[in-house]
Amino acid sequence: MTTPLAAVPAHLPDRLAITLWDFSWYVRTGPGEPFEDLDAAFTQARDRGYNAVRICAMPFLVFRSGLDTTALRLGPIGNGYAGRVRWYDVAAPTTIDARTHLLELFRAADRHGMVVIASSWEYQQSPAFAADRSWYDALHAVEPDDRLVVLGEALADLVDLLVEHGLGHTLAFVEPHNEVQAGHLTVGLPGRADPVVELKDRLEAGIAAFSARHPDVLCGPNYAAVPVTAMRGLPDNAGVLVVHPYVYGVLDDLVGEFALRGDPADFPQERADAELLRPGAPRLVEWAPPADEEWKRHASIVGHAEIYVHDWCDPAAVDRWQYERYGAHRIAMANRLEEWIGVAADHAARLGIPLVLGEGWVGYTPRDCRFEEGPVGAQICRDAVRHAARVGAWGSVVCSNAAPHHAMWADAGLQRECNAVLLGSLPGES
Question: How many whole angstroms separate alpha carbon 170 and alpha carbon 109?
Fold first, then answer.
């Protein structure tokens, strides 16, 4: 089975080998940070076989917030909070001209022969790294029913800017937002059905707002996981389908047994002390951002207990915890990976649009753990990209963690191997 690729504009690559730069490419530009030198980051990406990057293009901030972004101050959340959390471990404060920096990203992509997938993480994480709350407040001042339309218009403004500067060809496609059902875009929905279903009208309106101005640029939804029980909620006007097959499995046990995404009152502190945490870890109730920056917790969406365990775990203990239990989940995780990718491909084919696997594969592991970067995780990466090639996906990541701000970046060999499969240099079948 293959998904239709006829809708892909002729100037774009036949396949996209994607490295996930998210919002890190602009919040981590300070001295010694992985995106201090964009050309160096692109050079490393090309060396590993990538031809595409997927980013938060901060479209609302730059084009629709009304804020002065010529000196945007960014940095850590504060108090060391989330300082050891993957994606949140910003080390150095920095100041950027947001619009200029955005154009420089596209210029650098052009210099290195790569294309860019433009999305937004603004109703999830991005504003949490700003020095003040004006970006966050501007986002939440938009009525929930209007948020995806405003994002669609902002992305259309981005395309206008790129065309003005002769960079339109560097844009692969746009997503109104990352993981639409997992953030502040669901505010005000009835809550009687799956949010994927309830978001359909809002998403269709956002896609329509973008496509009315740029019908030649693909625009489509991006979903956390593969919403296999709610695929009827896919927007009818989608131009591309982007899903994130995070299979969790053994990681679900960790999340569930320690209430990492539940009520902090249910967190088993004594058990965590014995099984997961470093000696001297503060109590969960003591760990927080500065009192005057409590809004950053709401902006970041990751639960307090999950941040706490990621910050204060003994990485070796968490890895050991997962390895000891992985055997009971191995077959189910492998089956879910194959089935979810197959279901996504089937629905993309039904809609006649290309499929992209924008993130994956195990799930949200602590920054210094190596379960996903180790031998088990590496094989899951190999399996996933072969499934992607087999179903004819237009694009895929090697792994969400295969990016300059994660430890997997050092495993250049694995990334070259997997990207060769994605781009057709090796057989796609296992």
Answer: 7
The partner residues of 72 in beta bridges, in order of sequence, read 96
> Within the chain, how many helices (H) and strands (E) appear?
16, 10
- The token pair at 15 is 């396949």
For residue 277, list its beta bridge partners: 313
Residue with tokens 């929930």: 144
Give me the residues paired with residue 18 across strands. 52, 397
Amino acid at 271: R
Tell me the residue type at 365: T
Domain boundaries in the chain? 16-422
DSSP three-state, residue 219: strand
Confidence (pLDDT) at 123 = 98
CA nearest 347: which of 183, 235, 224, 186? 235
Rounded CA separation 260/302 (Å): 9
Q: How wide is the angle at C-alpha 397 spanned by C-alphas 405 and 331, nearest 5°?
A: 110
Tell me how far apart the alpha carbons of residues 107 and 11 are, in angstroms, rounded to a whole number: 17
Strand partners, 173: 117
Tokens at residue 335, please?
Answer: 């089956």
C-alpha 133, offset from chain centre? 22
User: Which residue stretches of 246-371 are H helix?
Assistant: 250-257, 269-275, 295-300, 304-312, 315-326, 330-351
Predicted pLDDT at 366: 97
Query: E-strand spans in 13-158?
Result: 16-22, 52-56, 72-74, 94-96, 115-119
Asked if residue 254 lies in contact with residue 318, where contact means CB atoms within 8 angstroms, the answer is yes
How confident is the model at residue 427, as a pLDDT? 56
* Cβ atoms within 10 Å, residue 280: 6
CA distance 129 to 12: 33
A 10 A CB-CB count for 53 gives 26
What are the per-10-residue average pLDDT scores of the chain (430 residues)?
Answer: 73 98 97 97 98 98 98 93 96 96 98 98 97 97 98 99 98 98 97 97 98 98 98 98 98 98 96 98 92 88 95 98 98 98 97 97 97 97 98 98 98 98 70
- Selected from 3.20.20.80, 3.40.630.30, 3.90.920.10, 3.40.640.10, the CATH number assigned to the domain covering 16-422 reads 3.20.20.80
